[in-house]
Amino acid sequence: MTNAFKSSFLLAFSLILILSCGDSTPPEQSGASQNATVEAANGEKKEQKKVILFFGNSLTAGYGLESHESFPSLIQARIDSLGMSYEVINAGVSGETTATGSNRVKWVLERQPVDVFVLELGANDGLRGTPVAETKKNLEKIIDTVRDIYPQAVIILAGMMVPPSMGPEYSTAFTKVFPEVAESKNVKLIPFLLDDVAGIDTLNLPDGIHPNAQGQKIVCDNVWETLATVLPRP
Fold it and tell me: Which residues are annotated as catalytic?
């Protein structure tokens, strides 16, 4: 981790803690027409897209950017370009913590079927100095809730870091939470969501926290590296 990351990431994070009609068919054709309608309906059902839901904070929401510039939107564009039948849902809310996320997740899941669930929360916990044990407990609770409602869903957890200036002991413990939860809950892990983006001025908005449009492209690549492993190619 570079000195630029340590200084600019900490400073910025310290400043912003907010994130039909009548039947005209001839009688002799009506049966065929009905069969065609049933077949069409079945075809639509077979072609129904699976859902990838990104559940996170402002990093997922695409804070400060147009909606099409957020990394979930970029993931959708990549999926479409590959002819893959998936719909991406961006359920990011600025300022979300693991605690508020654990309270919100059931409401989201009950309104939206999910095949792949990408969990991106924890950064705001770190900024607030939330006890690591609490963050870990909340992440596990969210994962358990997803599995209770959609047992077959694939779950991916996005790793996060805080600057060493938050205190070496806390920073180390916080960073370890994500691989520990991924292992204990048997979910896929994105090692560090902001890899090659955090602390780089040209890839972030003026606040120094949120990736700009160019930074989001790199975040998209970071996410895709793990996501692609669970999406069968057409």
Answer: 58, 207, 210
